[in-house]
Hints:
The chain has twelve helices and eight strands. By secondary structure, the chain is of the alpha/beta class. Helix 2 (25-32) packs across helix 3.
Amino acid sequence: MTQDGEAPTPAEVAPPGVNPNVPHSARIYDYWLGGKDNFAVDRAVGEAMMKAIPGMRYMAGENRKFVHRAARDLVAKEGIRQFLDIGTGIPTRPNLHEIAQQIAPETRVVYVDNDPIVLVHARALMISSEEGRSEYISADIHQPQDILTDPVLLETLDLTRPVGLTLIAILMLLADEDDPWSLVAQLRDAMPSGSILALTHPTADFNPAEVDQAVAAATGAGMTLVPRTKEQVARFFGDWELLEPGLVPVSGWRPDSPVENPEAAYYWAGVARKP
Ligand SMILES: C[S@@+](CC[C@H](N)C(=O)[O-])C[C@H]1O[C@@H](n2cnc3c(N)ncnc32)[C@H](O)[C@@H]1O
């Protein structure tokens, strides 16, 4: 509230660099997850997409649960002790480094996002265990070489040892014309043998009608949103070996308890190891 009791306009409360008049994926996703870091414009697009896909909030929650299960298994079963997480989003506890450091406190994580609202909250991402390290780089996946040569990344991660590369619900925000497959290939090529790629990607494969409507709501608001088929998502892994159970609906990737209808969350998820 302002001093005269009026509700503040978005422009009055938006941190520097954050445009409250243009919808942003990080803030819409925050809205679905029940966060507070979103503006009216984000909620409007988020609601329109929820109208198209009534299970949208459930889907966002299932995607986050995958982050938890994948991070846990990468550390506990695959021995991964360093992560590069691109398209981090607004901090949502537990964050990746918190899950990993609970198992192996020495784990190091570099987070990357290009949204100024995520930068505003980056401090929360950098509260690390004493033994480990957690850093944030403001950068764009369209320039993978900038990420890979960033001094913060090079100080934090040892690129001669296996890395857990996580691309969770980011690649649908890249148009086919930007060739996201080549961008991901550049990231994969920079990783040593034994590295792991974990990714999730929305798809129209399970319910084309609902997903088409949601895409129309997002693109109508000026956003890029590209659901992809299983075959298109599989290509992001290149020649890396998919770990069990393969590329599956996100809820069905090593679930903690049996899932009745894995296709109720319209995401593909997979984890693969570099030979
Ligand atoms: C839907 S959120 C996913 C957040 C988190 N990975 C998760 O799944 O819980 C997508 C994130 O990708 C970020 N993003 C979108 N385009 C990007 C780009 N070109 N480079 C880096 N980050 C990007 C957005 O700012 C947003 O924070």
